[in-house]
Amino acid sequence: MKTLTLSMILLAPLAPLAADTAAETAHAGITPDQLQFFEKNIRPVLVQSCYKCHSSEPTAKVKGGLTLDTKQATLLGGESGHPGVTPGSVAQSSIYEAMTWKNDDMQMPPKQKLPDEVIANFKKWIEMGAPDPRENKVANASGGKRVIDMDEGRKHWSFQKPVKQDPPAVKTDGWAKTPIDQFVLAGMEANGVHPVRDADRPTLIRRIAFDLTGLPPTPDEVRTFVADQSPDAVKRVVDMYLDSERYGERWARHWLDVARYAESSGKEVNVLYPHAWRYRDYVIESFKKDKPYDQFLKEQIAGDLLKFDNKRDQASKIVATGFLAIGSKGHNNRDRRQFAMDLVDEQIDAVSQSMLGLTLACARCHDHKFDPVTQRDYYALAGIFLSSETLFGTYEQLQNNNTAGLIELDRAAEQTSAVSRISRAEVAELKTSYERAQTSAAEMQREVFSMTAEQRTKAGVNTFLRVRGSRDRAAEIKADMDLFNDDGTPRTLAMGVLDRPNPINSPILVRGDIKQPGDVVPRGLVEVLCAKGEPLNISPQSGSGRLDLAFWIASKDNPLTARVMANRVWLKLMGAGIVPTPDNFGTMGQKPTHPELLDYLAVTFMENGWSVKKLIREIMLSRVYQMGSTYDAANYAHDPDNKYHWRMNQRRLDAEAIRDAMLAVGGKLNFYPVDGSPVALMGEGRQGMFSAMRGDLSNKPYNYRSIYIPIIRDQIPEMLSVFDFPDASLVNGDRDTTNVPSQSLYLLNNSQAQNAADAFAQRIAQYKGSSAERLSYAYELAFGREPTTQEKSAISNFWMRFQQQVAKSGGNNKDSRDRSEFAALSAFCQSLIASAEFRYLN
Q1: Tens digit of pLDDT for each residue in 572-628?
Q2: Which residue in 26, 155, 317, 799 has its CB near the most CB atoms, within 10 A?
Q3: Where is each DUF1553 domain found (predicted)?
């Protein structure tokens, strides 16, 4: 007998549904990422598939004594006596067991099992601790309408245009160097804290070097900066690193987090995207050249529609639209309409969070529960993206039911290719192989059609697999063949979007269900972000409307765009955002700690031509940025979270900076940019090759910068994942930072860490000088400073003990002594790499 039941799922995955009241997120301990995961992947399934039979609504027929519309009831479970959900344990969560259908007496929903992806999301949710913002208040399963007052909604601080205010007066004379300092110091004075002393010179240049290049400063750079006592010393070193080739690679990585960059689809099938790397290179080049941020955004939304100077410029703008094409997709979805709407939803979510700091995708199934955003707003945007053709590549194969073409760039654009030229003979061979594969597939299909029903039944699924396999082989060869022109030169293909010939408007889908279309809404913009009475709809003559959308988002009149980016830059330099929720400036996001400072930065950013470099420079030249991270008990008692910036936050380096620094100190980092990506060499759309690539990344000596390492969704290399690389399917403006044993174990035991230590040791061994001087030089490379007197004494004692140990072990011959000495030196270098000081900025 089935003791738990759920109504059959109608749509999966569904768009996010939000909670009914803002009070739900008063929950402590739920991070923004966890909240987003619940709203996007858990709540929609509960509402659509569970509440009919398991909610406290008067219309519901509660079965098995189980209600699932509050957190407490979900944890408690039903009449069976077993907990519904046990945070951290799927084995002790009866709801999860019922979803898997492994227990014949407890299966839900009873008529049709939930999709594997949905079940996997519930498993992930339970394992992360089942974060649930719902309180005792019963959720409104019926999706009752609320009236949104747009005039009232526009009063929210982030929906009003930023106004540049004069820096406030401060009581402490002489401390503030810049307007930024005045804003921050005024906050400190008003809240009973005082600034700590400035950072010492070696600490400061290390901070600047990592923040601008993602790499440690060289010993020569440190010595030069320490010796330069002129007033312009900091300015000179900041400008030096801003002009560095490495700057673009460092700051591009921050945007790629926000752009959810990856080279595969993720989800159940995980299809490869071998042309995604072009977008990565576009972002690097844009930051390197300090492309105005407003132009940067316009190109990513509508680069194909913008004016261009020449073929190369046109190609670059088209590649920029890869932003809209690289998102996660469910390629095995058999319903193309559902796939199209899910794709549009992903694009709306990415654009709104990354550029506007809003969760507009929450309005897919109903009006936004928190922000003044209606379903009309959502489907007005949906029409824009439905009127655009998203070209991401991949060929049809088993489990890949949704394919697309690619955009071919003009040969005159002289774009880099990831694959090498082949001969005309090899092109001819590919064509011949394709023709043979096509013939074989056709013959096999005719053979199956000629079989009797009894023969087909006897052959079973093997018949289907034979036909499918023959077709897939032909498609695979065709994909390889399409990479080349007839003369064997590689075609330059790009992911991106183009306008469809005939734009369309989208109907409002009731509860987000493609089977319940409602009123059709014209393509348009988000009402609350437009001035009252301003036209919202896109002109029918404007094509898809992407160009209008791009200029609207990148406008100085948009209240969010400049604020969101100014906050992102502040977060990366200071360790915490002025708005602590960088991807959510809506009512559920946190309020700014220094609203006047945020507006000052946003307006100054626009006044300076949307120059990211100038914004970075202004923050770095402030005394606030140059403070030390010294602990102060009195300050801590007033402000333990350092909300008022009385000291610099200590920050752990991100995964890429740790790996790159390990290679840099050993002199093994290859600065030559990679042409393309290893994914491009594996071929379009191929599945089942990820384990081989992971082996390559773990075993081959890839010594180029980490930004060029292939990013395959759900298959992130250990060197990155262990240090909190973000989920590449989600917009992420602020990475998690953990300090867990697996990180230390990686630095001690992983072969790449050991190889880095060996290279570091070889470099130290070749340094001219005494043993003590060589080991001191290791400190300079690793930490950007000389060892203290106490550390020098410890180094000397270590080396003396090592020599004594070698003598005791009988290592009298030179080879034995050399090997032992190198082993000790490598262990010493590895201890520096594994230390907290190597991984953190003070």
Answers
A1: 999 999 999 999 999 989 999 999 999 999 999 999 999 999 999 999 999 999 999
A2: 317
A3: 545-798
Neighbour count for residue 730 (Cβ, 10 Å): 19
Q: Are 12 and 47 in contact (CB under 8 A)?
A: no
Give the residue, 831 or 59, on which the prediction is more confident.
831
Please name the helix (run of DSSP H) or strand (run of DSSP E) that holds residue 343, with its range, or none.
helix 336-351
Please determine, for residue 12, whether its predicted confidence score (pLDDT) is greater than 80: no
Take residue 622 and report the two structure tokens written for it: 């402030």
d(CA 126, CA 773): 53
Q: Which residues contact 291 (CB under 8 A, 6 or more apart)?
A: none
Domain boundaries, the chain: 22-127, 424-489, 749-841
Task: Give strand pairing partners of 272.
Answer: 264
- Using pLDDT thresholds of 50, 70 and 90, give the confidence band for residue 251: very high
Tell me, what's the pLDDT at 790? 92
Instruction: Tell which residue, 48, 63, 37, 33, has the closest CA to residue 115.
Output: 48
Q: Is 414 exposed, middle or buried (0-12, 13-18, 19+ CB in 10 A)?
A: exposed
Let me know: does 275 contact 406? Beta carbons within 8 Å.
Answer: yes
Nearest to 326 by CA among 258, 263, 407: 263
Q: Amino acid identity, residue 577? A: G
Q: In the 8-state DSSP scheme, what is residue 706?
A: G
Residue type, 299: E
Here the tokens at position 504 are: 């369309």
pLDDT confidence bin for 691, thresholds 50/70/90: low
